[in-house]
Amino acid sequence: MMMFSQLGDMVKTVKAAPGLIDRANALADRTATYRQQMDAMAAQAVHAEPAAGALEPIAGVDLDRYARIVKGIAAYGYDETKLPVVARMFGIDPEAWAQAQAGWGARIQADRGVGRRFNEIYAAV
């Protein structure tokens, strides 16, 4: 009796196989398309250029100085509360730093070219 039950299960599996194969192939196609899109986005990010005017200083702080200040908290164990202290060492008052920090953060998020340039500066200092 058990043999017939197993044979019946095997028949069901064989009948379902074409649909399963079709779904697996469709999933593989979607995965390949997604991978191509992600590769294209990564390549674009590597070569992205900042939009016109996106590198203009914010509250008197250019991107180079911003990156140096952000990296400067390494001396404080990356304690972000020390950013105003480091900014002051670069001659930037707390109000200007608050504006620059918010502005540069927004630009870096919005413009891949600015983000790429920030990463280059950060890595170099």
What does this structure look like?
The chain is mainly alpha-helical and 125 residues long. It has helices at residues 2-47, 63-72, 83-89, 94-110, 112-124. Helix 4 (94-110) crosses helix 5 (112-124). The mean pLDDT is 87.
Per DSSP, the total helix count is 5
Rg of Cα set: 27 Å
Mean pLDDT over the residues: 87
Q: Quick one: overall form?
A: elongated
Give the terminus-to-terminus CA distance.
77 Å
Topology order in helix (H) and strand (E) letters? HHHHH
Low-confidence stretches: none
Task: Provide the structure class.
Answer: mainly alpha
Assess the beta-strand content as a share of residues.
under 5%
Strands, count: 0
- Determine the fraction of residues in helical runs and give it as a percent range: over 70%
Tell me the major beta sheet: none
Set down the secondary structure blueprint.
Elements: H1 2-47, H2 63-72, H3 83-89, H4 94-110, H5 112-124
List keywords for this structure.
125 residues; mainly alpha; 5 helices; 0% strand; elongated
Summarize the structure.
Helices cover 74% and strands 0% of the residues.
